[in-house]
Amino acid sequence: MKKSKISISSILKWTFIGVIIFILYLPILIIFILSIDSSKTGNSFTGFTLDWYKEIFTNKSLYMSIITSFAVALTATCISAFLGTFAAIGIHSLNKKVKGKVMLLNNVPVLNADIVTGISIMIICSFLVPLFPDIFGYWTMLIAHVFFTMPYVILSILPKLNELDPNLYDAPTDLGLKPMKALWKVIIPAIETGIISGALLAFTLSIDDFVISYFTSGNGVTNFSNWIYVRLGRRNFTPAAYAYNSLLTIVILICVLTPQLKKSKKKVGNK
Amino acid sequence: MKHFKYLSIPYIVWLLILVIIPLIAMIILSFADSNGFDFSTMTFTLDNWANLFDTVYLSAFWNSIKIAGISTIICILIGYPISYIISTSHLRNKMALIMVLVLPMWSNQLLRIIAWEKIFYPVSIINNIGISLNLIGTDFAVIFATVTMYLPFMILPTFTVLEKLDKSYIEASYDLGVSRVRTFLKVTLPMSSKGIMSGIIMVFLPASTGFAITERLGGGKIIMIGNIIESFFKRAFNYNMGSLLSLVVIMVIMGAIVLLSKFDKEGETLI
Amino acid sequence: MKKLLFLLVPAILLSLVVLVNNNPTALYLLNWGEYIDTDLISQFEDKYNATVIMEEVGSSEDMYQKIKMGITSYDVAIPGDYMVERMYNENMLKKLDLTKLDNYQDDMFNDDLTSLRKNDFFTDNEEYCIPYFWGAYGILYSTQKDYVETNIKENEWGAILDRSTFADNANNVKMAMYSVPRFGTTAYLLDTDKDINTNKVSDFDGLVDMMRSTNYDLWGDDSIKKQIAAGNIDLGLTQLGDFFDQYYLSSESGDDINFSYYIPTKTSAFFDAMVIPNTSTQTDLAYKFIDFMIDTDNSLQNASYVGYSPTIKAVCNEIKADPEYTDMLKEYPFYLDPLEGKTAKLYRYIDEMDDGTNYQDFLQGLINQVKA
Predict the structure, then answer these.
(1) Under a CB-based contact definition with an 8 Å cutoff, are residues B206 and A92 in contact?
(2) Which residues of A touch C252 (CB under 8 A)?
(3) HSE, side-chain direction, 13 A CA sphere, residue C18
(4) Among residues A110, A195, B246, C330, which is most buried (max CB within 10 A)?
(5) What distance in Å separates the CA atoms of residue A55 and residue A52, rounded to the nearest whole number?
(6) Burial profile C37-58: b = 16 or more Cβ within 10 angstroms, e = fewer
(7) What per-residue confidence (pLDDT) applies to C312?
(8) What is the rounded CA–CA span in Å between residue B63 and residue B59?
(9) Could you say which of B246, B256, B271 has the minimum Cβ distance to residue A159?
(10) Chain B positions in Cβ-Cβ contact with residue C219 (cut-off 8 Å)
């Protein structure tokens, strides 16, 4: 193992990364400061307060929008991950030409501008309004979120399918296992990491989505980003939004870093 | 595995409905003068297409490409080196550091934009520590914020690709006496180009079509194509011109997808 | 895949919460952001054992779209005057049975406003909309630089349209313009003595040149009042209500009040009104809501929260009699009588210019050229 050299280039490299991390976290720091600032306008610091954190639980429109964000994100993630797995397997099994064309179609929601995707779903759903008058709101948001997250799930799973040993399917079926069972017991566990990373990606994209939800909300249902947007610069915006965001950031930081740190402790321990 | 190709059929139908039908609706709207989606009072007109080459739209397109392009280049110049440094370092837990860099992504984008507003407006909470900037309405502010929003999208794919690189190629190159710089240029860079392509797509496309950053930080003076489409759909209620511009955006993006599919046959460059 | 089941449980639970919260017998209210005291909504819900679901928009155009699209069956909406006219023209509104409103009296609204409605608005508008708040258009400005106030009082609309009126200070002053095209174009029409409801293309000549050379430092809506209060911007075109809104907000926050408002001699007036769209499903509840809002005490409470000028005479009288308001009324008399000593007209809905182009598109085109 090479000894780590403390050279000038080393110092420069890590300072560079440090500076970038600082810049990336600057907005988060400001959001945190604003969440404990008793000023409602955030134009100056007028004193410490934890009131905004309490308000998260009392401001109904705020916590409903948060719950809506999570409800839509979690449900869309489950649906996309589950159906996306089967779709990916299906696409993987297609012949090259058809596969290419299907992937072209699949990549449209991924590459298309959010605003165009949002408008597209709004168009389709407004055709359905005569049949389902209350469709807008939760259901349209769900359809939209599944629509734009499933392609990402498929894109996460396909590389794993490609890496699979083709015998992985033939062997169990030769041994008498029905195709669907072979799928369930053998193939799906093998591509599990692809499914999980796809689901994670889907959730991330869904929870923070703004533009697409903007066009597909209705009937009083809005998600967190929309809640903020309608109140930008107005009096009914409360720093409780900053408080919620700061809480979320801290929780995610802990959730994400603890397994990583545990892993490194394990590594050291095994030496 | 060929057996499973039928699993892809429901998904293909879903994509066809949600992608093709809105497309048709937008094409129809672009050739018409209508009151929103009211197809019954529509009249046929070519005016929308005639107005397409108005300087307003052309300059908005140019602005979008310029700002998104510069942001993307900066993201490459910062993001790739970061991924490279971390990937080639001897850190025990590289993933943790990458997670730290990527974490701001989970903080709500609108709130982060508000935070940048506070930093770039001359009078705001940061005066408490004696700083006052006045950068609202400048390209600098918009580009700076865009880079901080999308840098994680460049870091992730480049890091993934660099980690998966078969290090034996690099070692072979050193063994053959090739200098570090040349090895990087001739071996590492080409082999990680797929990651850079992914990063470019995931940064440039949303950056060029978004509207929130320019709306809040551009002081209303910087207009990108996303802002114009949003104002047509949300303010002017002119779905006709809005659909037309959306179609142009779709066509440009589709052109890019087709080019991409020639570059990478598997259609998996994105993740 | 089994791990996904862990997600499925919270997913379903939370989704049920969202779905249950959506009550079909609720009153759907379409309003502007922060344009109602939410406490009043709670009071209404308690009194009539109902649920109110309020959606907020940022413009009359948004409101029109949302109702037109039919996505949500709104029961009460509060659009701006010219939008009420447009909706009336397109048969989107229910004719109101005024007998169902116990609190309604013929002479209950501010005289200036009533005169505008009788003489300058679509006939029989009394049966389609109930005034909510009203005001005038003018200039919100920072009081930190003396020359700003001086110039505004001298040149009125010219001060906000033409940077060169600031002479030596032209390069130092920070100017803002509202992003809604009609506000800025109206200022120009008033400055050049034209009819604010003109549809002649030639009346707008010179607008682009004048405003473009001004090179505004900020185009926005609600951000203007915030930035003026913060001192980042020196003057901007806004509605009267924006001033008091920001006044209340800054007072609550403990910030200093370093800004004021000026209404030019010739200006345009506006009012927002409660209407019942044809798509309403809870019409009885809608009547009860409107009736509730025009009750004097409720309207008074609303006025103390929303900065816009109240339309009901009884409310104005209560405010004049209230010692807490005396100082504010002395300093800002235009709160209750925005058109005192001014000439004003209401916006009418205009469909097309005299050359056939759509009115909105034309105005937006002018503004796009100004910004380019």
Answers:
(1) no
(2) 40
(3) 34
(4) B246
(5) 5
(6) beebbeebeeeeebbbbbbbbb
(7) 94
(8) 6
(9) B271
(10) 219-221
Q: Which residue of B92, B208, B257 is in closest CB contact with A104?
A: B257
Pick the CATH number of C136-269+336-371 from 3.40.50.300, 3.40.190.10, 3.40.50.720, 1.10.8.140: 3.40.190.10
Output the pLDDT for position C142: 93
- Report residue B143 as tokens: 């580009």
Q: Tokens for B153, please give them.
A: 């999208």
Segments making up each domain of chain C, as ranges: 10-134+270-327, 136-269+336-371
**Chain B closest-CA separation from residue A103 CA (Å):** 6
Name the closest residue on chain C to residue B241, using Cα atoms: C361
Written as one string, the DSSP assignment of C232-265 is S-SEEEEEHHHHHHHHHHHHHHT----EEEE--S
Nearest CA in chain A to B39: A127
Q: Which domains does chain A have, with CATH numbers?
A: 67-232 (1.10.3720.10)
Prediction pTM value: 0.81
Residues A15-73: tens digit of each pLDDT: 999 999 999 999 999 999 889 888 777 777 778 888 889 988 988 889 999 999 999 99
CATH number of the domain at C10-134+270-327, please? 3.40.190.10
Q: Evaluate whether C296 touches C316 at the Cβ level (below 8 Å).
A: no
Return all residues near C92 (Cβ < 8 A) that are at least 6 apart: C67, C68, C277, C278
Q: Return the C-alpha torsion angle C175, C180, C186, C188, nearest 10.
A: 40
Distance CA A249, CA A31 (A): 10
Separation between Cα atoms, residue C206 and residue C210, nearest integer Å: 6
Residue B114 neighbours by CB under 8 Å, 6+ apart: A31, A232, B216
> Mean pLDDT, to the nearest integer, of B93-110?
87
| Domains and their CATH numbers in chain B | 53-263 (1.10.3720.10)
Identity of the residue numbered C307:
G
Three-state secondary structure call for residue A221: strand
The whole-angstrom separation of Cα B53 and Cα B48 is 10
The pLDDT, as a whole number, for residue A220 is: 77
Give the residue-averaged pLDDT of A135-152: 90
Q: How far apart are CA C53 and CA C74, in angstroms?
A: 9
Q: Which residues of A touch C254 (CB under 8 A)?
A: 39, 46
CA atoms within 13 A on the CB side of B248: 20
B219: nearest CB among C219, C361, C368: C219
Q: CA–CA separation, A221 vs C370, rounded Å?
A: 37
Pairing of strands C76-77, C27-32: parallel
Specify whether the CB–CB gap between A213 and A144 falls below 8 A.
yes
Q: What number is the average pLDDT over the span C339-362?
A: 89
**Three state DSSP letters for chain B:** CHHHHHHHHHHHHHHHHHHHHHHHHHHHHHCEEEECCEEEEEEECCHHHHHHHCHHHHHHHHHHHHHHHHHHHHHHHHHHHHHHHHHHCCCCCHHHHHHHHHHHHHCCHHHHHHHHHHHHCCCCHHHHHCCCCCCCCCHHHHHHHHHHHHHHHHHHHHHHHHHHCCHHHHHHHHHCCCCHHHHHHHHHHHHCHHHHHHHHHHHHHHHHHCCHHHHHHCCCCCCCHHHHHHHHHHCCCCHHHHHHHHHHHHHHHHHHHHHHHHHCCCCCCCC
pLDDT, tens digit (0-9, with 9 covering 90-100), for A202-232:
998 999 898 899 888 877 788 899 889 878 7
Sign of CA dihedral C293, C296, C297, C301: positive
Tokens, residue C355: 């050359």
Q: One fold for both C10-134+270-327 and C136-269+336-371?
A: yes
Q: What is the pLDDT of residue A141?
A: 92
Burial bucket for residue A91 (CB in 10 Å: 0-12, 13-18, 19+): buried
A96 contacts on B by Cβ (under 8 Å):
265
